[in-house]
């Protein structure tokens, strides 16, 4: 069984960059500039922001299904980030740089399995998890900070409900 990793949709975050700092603060969002070439993983492109890149640091509910496993954490998104089609079995750059926590979920949002992975084992572990017919999707987290990093599914089985809050909830009204 193969897997495909997905970043978050750019359209959910683009309008936020046009808000004033005061409007962002009302949403508990802060504007940042990357001060290094590593340490600011964009959740849209799944690559590291370059030093000087404009970013938003915001709270994101990455598992919004109505279960006890509902979860959220801070994430970075880069200004001007574009959606990226990640090929099946491709491990994006930002997931190769840090230890990972893999959380496998059933379609209803209940956890089925979990494991730790590094750049050498992540592909094998995602394949194993998604080979289990009880697993619908896997959330990938940075193991040390706990931040949501990406979603993994079987190719062609992506469901928007598996990657967090409704994008309309982020966009300015």
Q: Which key phrases capture this entry?
A:
2 helices, 9% helix, mainly beta, three-stranded antiparallel sheet, 173 residues, five-stranded antiparallel sheet, globular
Architecture overview:
The protein has 173 residues and is mainly beta. It has one domain (4-169). The protein has helices spanning 21-26, 122-131, and strands at 4-6, 30-33, 54-63, 71-78, 100-105, 111-117, 137-142, 148-153. Strands 1-8-7-5-6 form a five-stranded antiparallel beta sheet, covered by helices on one side. A hairpin with a 5-residue loop joins strand 5 and strand 6 (111-117). The radius of gyration is 16 Å and the shape is globular. The protein starts with a strand and ends in a 20-residue tail after the last strand. The relative contact order is 0.23.
